[in-house]
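Reviewers of the previous submission asked for a worked example of the structure-prediction workflow described in the proposal, so we include one complete record here. The input consisted solely of the amino acid sequence. No template or homolog information was supplied to the procedure at any stage.
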Amino acid sequence: MKKQLLALAIGSMVVAPSVAMADKGPTVYGKVNVSYENQDRDRASFSNDAWRLQSNASRLGVKGELDLNIEDVVAVYQAEYQINVDDGGTPFEQRNIFGGFKHATAGTLIAGNFDTPLKRAEMKVDQFGDTPGDIDFLMAGQLRAKNIIQYSSPKLADMLTLNVAFIPGEEFDDVANPDANDGPADAISASLTFQKDIFYGAIAYDSETTTRTRGGSTPRRFVDSDGGAQDPQNDILRFVAGVNTSAFEAGFLYQLAEGANNNMEDTSYLVSGAFKTGNLKLKAQYGLTEGDLTDEERSLWALGADYKVGKNSKVYAFLTEVEEDLSEDKDTTFGIGFDHKFSM
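From that input alone, the workflow returned the following structure tokens.
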């Protein structure tokens, strides 16, 4: 019996690569990112803190390409889910999931639920993604959109990529909702990204997208917001520039966000940097969002260190703070953790 099982295992190892070579997949991938954190919330009416074990966007996914009976065209697909390692929670939460087609010279067309071009235009600027120092806590625009269709060009001049996405509102126009979002492209997101050698950059624009920032315990779109019901549609312009070498990294992001049907406006800045030596990476970033109506300011700073303990594994430590000036709300978090990435 043991010999039969061994033969089956070896046979599967021989057959699986041949299938993968034919269709470039499926590839199973994911990561487990867990941190142990002390979270200190300081509000005008209360102050408290707690130690918590956090699963930081740990995920499991499958992706690949399928050969088609069309010259130079393949089908592409990805199904990625967040897994809650710390407390179980909901077993799976949808992340970037899509299907589509890729042409060797014409580009890629996909549809599904995934990050907008403006969100992905942050590129490598955010040194503290998926932690309390993530730029999600500072500015609008970090949207994973439902019902989104996107075209991406092939790399132009070996350095430029154009991404254009549109999102139908999927509403029906009737007496109760005469101004329904029932068009083919009620929201639009686009970007032009640049990557050449050690340099990268992007310019991106969103029109009438629905996004939020996560400030403290209450999700808020703008620092001008009081948490009440408001027009969720935003127009956002984002500029990104950075450099990434074997010894150091530096990045800058500027963003202007406006309420599409009101006068709210946010201006955001973020600078980040890192120094690398051997397996150690020391990093820092600072960001500021200013609201033009109330003069409220939200600031974010973060300091951290990553240490690689394997090709796809690291341990890390960080200290972050998110503060709002007028309300005097402040969240400070210290954490240590590990990040293991895998694929097969």
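The first strand starts at residue 27 and ends at 42. We consider this example representative of the routine output the project will generate in years two and three.
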